[in-house]
Amino acid sequence: MEDSFDVAGYVRRVRRVADLSQRELAAALGVSRAAVGRIESGETTPGVILLVEILRLAGLRLKIVDVSGGEVAPVPRDVIRDHADRHFPSHLDAVGPSDMPPHRGANPRKGKPDARGWYTLRGRRIELRDRRGTQLDHPTVAGLRRERRERMAVLRAKIVERWGVRPEPECTCFDACFEELCLAECPCQCEPDRRRPPRDVAARQTGAASASPAGPRDLEVRVSPEDAAGRPAAR
Q1: Could you tell me the pTM of the whole model?
Q2: Which of 6, 170, 198, 208 falls between 20 and 30 A from 74, CA-CA?
Q3: Percent of the chain clearing pLDDT 90 (strictly above)
């Protein structure tokens, strides 16, 4: 067949490109020279892992392509799994945990932990594939996280557009304010100390005290009737 993979021919190609004898190739692979001879003669066929190692010696690699020649990637390793850490059936179409199929009902889990993903049974899958086409891969954990971040970014943009955003003022606190709360003389007062009176009240009290300092001449002596009768006044 024209489309058959000529393993023996590719092994000889490797020896041509890498300038290796059968003994040198066998030593690099950890096999006997006779094993290399049987591969080149077509008597035996190496496994995929051994073939990949042979090609690597010449800087070559295996590649899977479709009928149009486009490279086909393997299924990602981080596809979603169920609660038993098992992959969902590869022949079925799986979706993320937030895309529950409508035919599953209102409470499909019935008290069990939230689903990590959903898959569509064969009958429903054929119907969906006829309308939407074949799903390339099951969702991946990284892909679901990226989609969630994108949805949140769109939601934040809509909130900003509709309601606007009040930017937080730049903090001008003193270094000592970060120990506990803002000091009384801190101009920022982003975390005021509620145990003190506000700055304006404290300023008025301080101003009043400085405007009329207490002294002996400013004291008013009041004498009660009892004091007038001969008892010493309380000081």
Answers
A1: 0.49
A2: 6
A3: 23
